[in-house]
């Protein structure tokens, strides 16, 4: 595990807010010289702490404004059943996250689609056809008072 100091934490916080922040502006915000700041950022990238930079998109404007969290239980608890399910979810475009979790069900999914009708199609045509799916519970998001992705 990589160890961080307060300056690294400040850099990471600022880059989480705005990954396109110019090095000079970042250095000013965290109280470093531009060259020292750049060295720290490069080290955080090299060590894998910073995995990459992405654009945050408006889900409604990209046809993904209907957000559903889905819990999925499997009827078999074998490695083959898990691998089959995970492959199906990797290939399902509406699934933006798939987590294998401990508890009353095996998987928690984040599904982003255009509408309730699109989710119903995903539920029926994708989830409903994956072998060993025993239970599906859907939680439609009505609002997001806090979402650090936005």
**CATH 2nd-level architecture of the largest domain:** 2-Layer Sandwich
- Going across the major beta sheet, what is the strand order? 2-3-1-4
Helix content: 25-40%
Largest sheet: 4 strands, antiparallel
Q: Strand content of the residues, in percent?
A: 15-25%
Mean pLDDT: 95
- Helix-strand category: alpha+beta
SS field, number of helical segments: 5
Do you know the CATH topology of the largest domain?
Answer: Alpha-Beta Plaits
Number of domains: 2
CATH class of the largest domain, named Alpha Beta
Any descriptors?
150 residues, alpha+beta, Arc Repressor Mutant, subunit A, Alpha-Beta Plaits, 2 domains, four-stranded antiparallel beta sheet, 5 helices, 4 strands, 20% strand, elongated
Q: What is the secondary structure topology, with strand pairs?
A:
Blueprint: H1 6-17, H2 23-30, H3 34-46, E1 66-74, H4 79-90, E2 95-100, E3 107-113, H5 116-125, E4 133-140
Antiparallel strand pairs: 1-3, 1-4, 2-3
Describe the fold and architecture.
It is a single chain. This protein has 150 residues and is an alpha+beta fold. The protein has two domains: 6-46, Orthogonal Bundle (Arc Repressor Mutant, subunit A), CATH 1.10.10; 60-140, 2-Layer Sandwich (Alpha-Beta Plaits). The chain has helices spanning 6-17, 23-30, 34-46, 79-90, 116-125, and strands spanning 66-74, 95-100, 107-113, 133-140. Strands 2-3-1-4 form a four-stranded antiparallel beta sheet. The longest helix has 13 residues, at 34-46. The protein is elongated and about 55 Å long. The model has no long low-confidence stretch (mean pLDDT 95).
């Amino acid at each position: 595990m990589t160890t961080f100091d307060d300056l690294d934490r400040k850099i990471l916080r600022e880059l989480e807010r705005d990954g396109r922040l110019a090095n000079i502006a970042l250095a000013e915000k965290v109280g470093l010289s531009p060259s020292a700041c750049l060295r720290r950022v490069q080290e955080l990238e090299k060590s894998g702490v910073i995995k990459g930079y992405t654009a945050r998109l408006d889900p409604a404007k990209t046809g993904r404004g209907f957000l559903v969290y889905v819990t999925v239980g499997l009827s078999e608890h074998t490695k083959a059943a898990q691998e089959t399910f995970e492959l199906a979810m990797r290939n399902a475009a509406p699934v933006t996250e798939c987590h294998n979790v401990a508890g009353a069900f095996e998987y928690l999914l984040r599904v982003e689609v255009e509408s309730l009708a699109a989710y119903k199609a995903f539920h029926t045509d994708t989830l409903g056809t994956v072998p060993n799916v025993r239970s599906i519970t859907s939680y439609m998001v009505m609002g997001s008072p806090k979402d650090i992705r936005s």
